[in-house]
Amino acid sequence: MEKYKRNLDAIDHTQNRYNDHNKIHIHPYDPQVLEKVREDFLLPRTCKEFIDWVDTHPHYDVVAEASSQYIRGTDRSEAFWQCANIQADWQSINDKITKYCLDNEIDTKFDTDYTEEWRIYDMKDQNTYVPFRHNSELDNQRKHGFKKQYQLIEVTLTDHFAELKDIEQLFEFDWAKTDINYQPTSGAFPRHVDFLTTAFKRAVEFDERIANAKYNPLTKCPEGWVLKRILIPTDSWYPGQMFSFEEHFWTDWKPGQVIDFNWAHCRHATANSGYSPRPLIKITGLVKESHWLAKGEWRDFVL
Amino acid sequence: MKYVTLKQDICKNLSSTIQAEDFFLLEGKLIFVLHEKAMQVKDYLEKTYDIKVHTQLTRNWPHWDQEYETEMWIQNK
Fold first, then answer.
1. Inter-axis angle of helices A31-41 and A60-67, to 10 degrees?
2. How many domains does chain A have?
């Protein structure tokens, strides 16, 4: 715990009710500790209260682990599934991403350090490609040797990738947040579940309907809404590139495939042990339960 | 099925022998303090849900507060 992106005053230590803090960040977590944290997590909160709680929690990594209700043996179709296909000029899109990465030395200066704040406001230029991490999450990853995960290239908040904003529009998300999850060779992101906090935080920040809605700790979504994250490769899979959803693996992907997945409960992990970078478009946002994605329907798109 | 739902189901239907503190969730597996109780749950799950349940000895770690005898997971179909 050498470096903090936030002043320690921002951490709410009243959340500490565990006997020995020195043991709390050691994998595998103590099952009884996880059960205690899960009890806290299940308490009723509004979305704003939840974001404040998790954002200032001293043990984010344990909260995330406790939030997973995944049971090994869950069918692959409930872990991840293809929900759509997009026909587009993927060669040009991928070439543009590749050039952007060359121009900005994203592969050669691959690093994942502590960051200062969430990216939820429009930005003119992107100065760092480090994805946001809660301190305790990054501490935990680094303790276990995961020092470089992936690089995050903004789409929604900048004006560099108009064609990707067109793709974002196809899905009609509220509070859509799109970025390129670009994993240079050697990157590895360990098993985790998400809260989709960046998109969720934007919605809470700007939309009182979401801020005041009840947070459902079982779906990990605002009541009446479904938080979605979809993944779209811009390049074909190369041997050595890995994407796991617990005991299930996604492989041999093609540009334009759209993957939906159980981000809330199914731990997922990525690694690039190949010799080609691995770019994925990641679109996150909110939909109503009547939306085709929430209903598990399929769509074909042509751009 | 989610863990909290499964736990409620087990504790309700095996209430005479299984209590909430008898087992927990760890990385997708149910982890039991006593092997005997794990076997009762395995028998219940296999008969009730027509699934294959696997068990094995638990690797116990020094930073845990108590020891566990058995861990359990469901066979993928």
1. 80
2. 1
Question: Residue A260: which domain range?
Answer: 81-302
A230-261 b/e with 16+ CB inside 10 Å = b? bbbbbbebbeebbbbbbebebeebebbbbbbb
Q: Does B25 touch chain A (CB under 8 A)?
A: yes
Q: Considering its fold, how many domains does chain B have in total?
A: 1
What CATH number should be reported for the domain holding residue A274? 2.60.120.10
ipTM, two decimals: 0.94
Give the residue from A71, A193, A216, A221 with the most B CB atoms within 10 Å of its CB, the best one to mutate: A71
Range of the domain at B31: 3-74
A219 to chain B: which residues are within 8 Å by CB?
none
* Tens-digit pLDDT profile for residues A174-221: 999 999 999 999 999 999 999 998 899 999 999 999 999 999 999 999
Cα of B53 to nearest chain A Cα, Å? 9
